[in-house]
TrEMBL record:
Residues 7-77 form the MIP18 family-like domain. InterPro entries: FSCA_dom_sf (IPR034904), MIP18-like (IPR002744), Mrp/NBP35_ATP-bd (IPR019591), NUBPL-like (IPR044304), P-loop_NTPase (IPR027417), YlxH/NBP35 (IPR033756). SUPFAM superfamilies: Fe-S cluster assembly (FSCA) domain-like, P-loop containing nucleoside triphosphate hydrolases. Belongs to the Mrp/NBP35 ATP-binding proteins family. ATP binds at G123, K124, G125, G126, V127, G128, K129, S130. CDD domains: Mrp_NBP35 (cd02037). This is Iron-sulfur cluster carrier protein. Homodimer. The keyword Transit peptide applies. Binds and transfers iron-sulfur (Fe-S) clusters to target apoproteins. Can hydrolyze ATP. Keywords: 4Fe-4S, ATP-binding, Hydrolase, Iron, Iron-sulfur, Metal-binding, Nucleotide-binding, Transit peptide.
Length: 373
């Protein structure tokens, strides 16, 4: 595939007009940045809150133009009120020359004090991804690591219920302080809204909320941040892949073929955004009757292990289908902490140890995503 030229993308956006000035959005200085990762493009247009509604048709047109460029498989355009500050003049050299209108400074990397960032993802909902993410994070904390847990599912946040938290975070200055539970620093949009309030937001608002929960939260120094991703391969996944240096992704699936098809999409999505896939986890792998001990493979068994081998990635382990896991989550007491000697907790502990083994070396090599300006 031919390399996508940033200059070509800028030239294409010259076809989009700014309704206020009559100029194209590039000449008008509205194009803040263009970020390119493989065949994925994200652009940012400058505006202010008062004109955001009028700029929405412009945003949509710019997005359509970028999607139509050769080699681009997905493009997202967001509106921002941020304008980079001009650089201070160097000592002894007089006033700085005016900054080039079309070359603003790159956005700073988010979460600079976090050593490793791991996305827990799935290609579809209903596979127990959030339960795996929570218990993985708790297990990592129990093993002595400094751990954060970010709920990136804006439409269906589940961390407040699963962690037993129902209060709003404290705000100090311009930063929110993450809530503490089960040895974790936690943040979720669910801490800020009522549990029954639907988040009827468009993609750019979701992306903005994610950036705020990463950049405007006082996470501090963490050994690892576990990110509970929403299901699918949409805006949230693209934002995470482009705005932070993801150390890797853990893909959660159940054993049956229909779930594995979606897990395969998740793997391919992270590969396209150059995020290493740490491996697959088979959740709800088998069921053992608590009364007689008879084992039933309700959703089949071994499908994720076979799929991992087919995709050339590691099989990280299997988590059984147990009533105690569900009841503990509903009660806000993750089983990895509430019953650390249980078979379920031991499975999560083994998963956490393997994930840490993989990221502790990868975190050293991981660097910030490059923003092309």
């Amino acid at each position: 595939m031919a390399e996508i030229s940033q200059e070509a993308l800028r030239a294409a956006l010259c076809a989009v007009k700014d309704p206020a000035s009559g100029q194209d959005i590039v000449s008008a200085g509205l194009l803040e940045s263009i970020e390119v990762r493989d065949s994925l493009v994200q652009a940012t247009l400058l505006t202010d809150r008062a004109h955001a509604a009028a700029m929405e048709p412009v945003r949509r047109e710019a997005e359509a133009v970028l999607c139509g460029q050769p080699g681009v498989t997905n493009a997202t355009v967001i509106l921002t009120a941020h304008r980079p500050q001009p650089a201070a003049p160097a000592a002894g050299r007089g006033p700085a020359a005016p900054a080039a209108k079309h070359a603003p400074a790159a956005k700073p990397a988010l979460l600079p004090e976090v050593k490793a960032i791991v996305a827990v993802a799935s290609g579809k909902g209903g596979v127990g991804k959030s339960t795996v993410a929570v218990n993985l994070a708790v297990s990592l904390a129990r093993q002595g690591h400094t751990v954060g847990l970010l709920d990136a599912d804006i439409y269906g946040p589940s961390l407040p219920r699963m962690l037993g938290l129902n209060r709003k975070p404290e705000v100090r200055g311009d930063r929110m302080i993450p809530l503490q539970a089960w040895g974790l620093s936690c943040m979720s949009i669910g801490f800020l809204v009522d549990e029954e309030t639907p988040m009827i937001w468009r993609g750019p608002m979701v992306m903005g909320a994610l950036e705020q929960m990463m950049g405007q939260v006082a996470w501090g120094k963490l050994d690892i941040l576990v990110v509970d991703m929403p299901p699918g391969t949409g805006d949230a996944q693209l934002t995470m892949a482009q705005r932070v240096a993801l150390t890797g992704a853990v893909i959660v699936s159940t054993p049956q073929d229909i779930a594995l098809i979606d897990a395969r999409r998740g793997v391919r999505m992270f590969e396209k955004t150059q995020v290493p896939v740490l491996g697959l986890v088979e959740n709800m792998s088998f069921f053992c009757c608590p009364n007689c001990g008879h084992r039933s493979d309700i959703f089949g068994h071994g499908g994720a292990k076979a799929e991992a081998a087919r995709l050339g990635t590691e099989f990280l382990g299997e988590i059984p289908l147990l009533l105690d896991i569900r009841t503990a989550a509903d009660a806000g007491q993750p089983i990895a902490a509430a019953a650390p000697d249980s078979e379920a907790a031991k499975a999560y502990d083994a998963l956490a140890r393997r994930v840490w083994d993989k990221v502790s070396g990868a975190a050293v090599r991981s660097g910030p995503r490059i923003v092309i300006e």
